Amino acid sequence: MKQPPRKIGAPRKSGPPPPKPVARPDRDDDDGPDDPARLRIRRLDANRYALLIPITALDRQEDIDEVKVMIAAGELDIARDELLYLVSDCRGFLEAHNLLGELALEEHNVSLAQGHFGFAYEIGVDSLPPGFRGRLPANKEYNGAFFLAGRGVARCLIARGQIDKGREVLELLARLDPQEATIRGLLAELKEREPTN
User: Fold this and answer.
1) How many domains does the chain have?
2) pLDDT-based confidence at residue 35 (cuts at 50, 70, 90)
């Protein structure tokens, strides 16, 4: 007999458990209580690090897949409600914040999109140890969601005429991953826009 569909947002009751992250070490500089919006970070090698997806977000990947189906079907209000539920349940769920930003852009609400992307970007920045000088390769673990948020907030800032703030975000991302081609391309576009003296 076919099982009734699981309510979106409800915990999984059966089936294989979700995959575990490669590592869940505590932050080296974490000397206080855990902040639900602070991501854990792990060292990849001498100077490269990766942000780790929160366990609660990992457990909700099936929900994100369902949200993407809703978006593809044009059920934007239902998708938005589900995403808002997911980020209330897991503040560090960058992918859900980014999808909220994309939905706001679909509705031409750049200010709201900036808020969603900006929240995800700030979570990533606040998760880095003070004075962080390492590298965050954009293609490793949860770094990609952080870089997507940063690009999103930078584009929104630039679209709203806050070019210096947008450039500041892009420059920070470029320092964290100097090899990230999209960030370099966006910085080059900004440079081309600058008036020549």
Assistant:
1) 1
2) low
Domain range for 133 is 41-193
Whether 63 and 8 have beta carbons less than 8 Å apart is answered as: yes
| Residue 190: per-residue pLDDT | 86
Question: Which among 70, 73, 74, 125 has a CA at the least distance from the CA of 96?
Answer: 70
In a domain, 1, yes or no: no
The 10s digit of each residue's pLDDT in 55-102 is 999 999 999 999 999 999 999 999 999 999 999 989 999 999 999 999
CA distance linking residue 171 with residue 193, whole number of Å: 16
Helices (H) and strands (E) in the chain, counts: 8, 2
At residue 58, what is the residue type? L
Q: State the Cα–Cα distance between residues 97 and 149, nearest whole angstrom.
A: 8
Q: At 142, which CATH number? A: 1.25.40.10
Segments of the chain assigned E as strands: 41-43, 49-51
Cβ atoms 158, 164 nearer than 8 A: no
Q: Is the pTM of this model over 0.70?
A: yes
